[in-house]
Amino acid sequence: MARYTGSVCRLCRREGTKLFLKGDRCYSAKCAISKRPTPPGMHGQARARKMSEYGMQLREKQKVRRTYGVLETQFRRTFDKAARVKGVTGDNLLALLERRLDNVVYRLGLASSRAQARQFVRHSHITVNGKKVNIPSFLVKPGDVVEVAEKSRSSVKFKRLTGEDAIMVTLPQWLEREKNTLKGTVTKMPAREDIDMPIEEHLIVELYSK
Question: Which of 22, 110, 12 lies closest to 62, judged by CA?
Fold first, then answer.
């Protein structure tokens, strides 16, 4: 499957905000957008032009798509699914993206970034309710138990997650993680207020509704 292989820091600079695509580096002084907050390219420092309505809608869609690491076709399918579900389409879209297994692994602090979480899932390091799942887009539901596979726990990259070098994360209210373990539980469906990223989902709905 096609996947962006360039510098992820360029994506943050293009969207003008931190997308937290590079793990610990995003929280350090080395973060590219902290040092160079202008868009990439030779015209990045040119005087900013007023963005059109379509431009704002497109940038918001690209920001969300890049944050969750979803390809354009996948994102459109997810939006279509959100539109068919009862409720507010924008809220449904974000809930579906949050319920992706790779995102849940990241949100539980079992990976330093969504890209790393996606890799863990694809390499069969993650189980759901005791069964290995290697599909990053797998949607979890309340009651599901997500944990590192038993055979993978001896790996150095997972051992550090229960020690002093454990990744410090603020768990959203719809997830729980047992202390000093590599296991988390989905307690309920994610709600809009559980998503703390600055997203204007109504712009995405407007874009796809044209």
Answer: 12
Q: Which two tokens stand for residue 161?
A: 């997650």
Residue 123 corresponds to which tokens in the numbers above? Answer: 């390499």
Task: Single out the residue of 209, 205, 155, 210 nearest to residue 182, CA to CA.
Answer: 155
How far is it, in rounded angstroms, from Cα 152 to Cα 127? 10
Taking the whole predicted model, whether its pTM rises above 0.85 is answered as no
Ramachandran bin of 96, using left for φ above 0, alpha for ψ from -120 to 50, beta for the remaining angles: alpha
C-alpha span between 170 and 97 (Å, rounded) = 18
Per residue of the chain (210 residues), give pLDDT as tens: 456 555 655 555 555 565 555 555 555 555 555 556 666 655 455 555 677 999 889 989 999 998 999 999 999 999 999 999 999 999 999 999 999 999 999 999 999 889 999 999 999 999 999 999 999 999 999 999 999 999 999 888 887 776 655 666 789 999 999 878 899 999 999 999 988 888 999 999 999 997
CA distance 53 to 56: 5
Count Cβ atoms within 10 A of the Cβ of residue 141 and give its class: 0-12 exposed, 13-18 middle, 19 or more buried.
Answer: exposed
